[in-house]
Specification:
Radius of gyration: 20 Å
CATH superfamily of the largest domain: Fe-S cluster assembly (FSCA)
Helix content: 10-25%
Structural class: alpha/beta
CATH class of the largest domain: Alpha Beta
Number of domains: 2
Oligomer: single chain
Order of helices and strands: EHEEEEHEEHEEHEH
Strand content: 25-35%
Length: 204
């Protein structure tokens, strides 16, 4: 999700050590994003403020809490502590665009990339190249996506986990707030549905 530089870790731990409440952590939120970039809020966050859907990161000997919407825009970000022109504070190097490609096709490609991070537990290939994803339909105005997928077999041990993983990964894509996942057995999956890259990976 995110990482801290050594200097940022030291500052975060310094602030937490001075917190009034025990078990406090750092909360990061994105309060605004537009063509000029992101606006971030950093604050001390007591354990009592932790929400069920918070993204929890344990790095550097302390806890960072991020709300799920902000987390979408912080993938791969690095938190640093900088001093410049007599000012100092946390700074975020964020590789994500503040305004993503909001077209249906652009969002579909982002979903595909997200789904490529999910792997079948029995075959060392991601589920997209494995050919388990049959259809992705995006409504960019409603910020929703419908995914039709299958499994390698009805008795697949990941029959419950994989569809849930697909839903979570799809909803993690910036610009998508709701995803629906449908399992179909028609047509049934066969090895021929794998991509050429997957076949090469498996020596087929």
């Amino acid at each position: 999700m995110i990482r801290y530089t050594d200097k940022a870790k030291e500052k975060a731990k310094h602030f937490i050590s001075g917190a009034k409440e025990q078990n406090s952590g750092i909360r990061i939120a994105i309060t605004k994003r537009d063509e000029s970039g992101f606006v971030y809020h950093f604050g001390l966050d007591p354990y009592s403020n932790e929400q069920d859907d918070d993204i929890i990161i344990r790095e550097g000997g302390f806890v960072t809490r991020i709300d799920p919407e902000s987390a979408k825009w912080l993938k791969g970000a690095t938190v640093d502590w900088i001093q410049k022109d007599e000012k100092e504070g946390f700074s975020v190097l964020n590789p994500n665009p503040p305004i993503p490609d909001a077209t249906s096709e652009g969002l579909k490609q982002s979903i595909v990339e997200a789904l490529k991070s999910i792997f079948d537990p029995e075959i060392p290939v991601n589920i997209y190249d494995l050919g388990l994803i049959y259809e992705i339909t995006v409504d960019h105005e409603k910020q929703s996506a419908d995914v039709v997928m299958t499994l390698t077999a009805p008795n697949c041990p990941a029959a419950e986990q994989l569809p849930n993983d697909v839903k979570v990964k799809t909803e993690s894509v910036p610009g998508i707030k709701k995803a629906k996942v449908e399992i179909t057995w028609e047509p049934p999956w066969t090895p021929e549905k794998m991509s050429e890259e997957a076949k090469l990976e498996l020596g087929l």
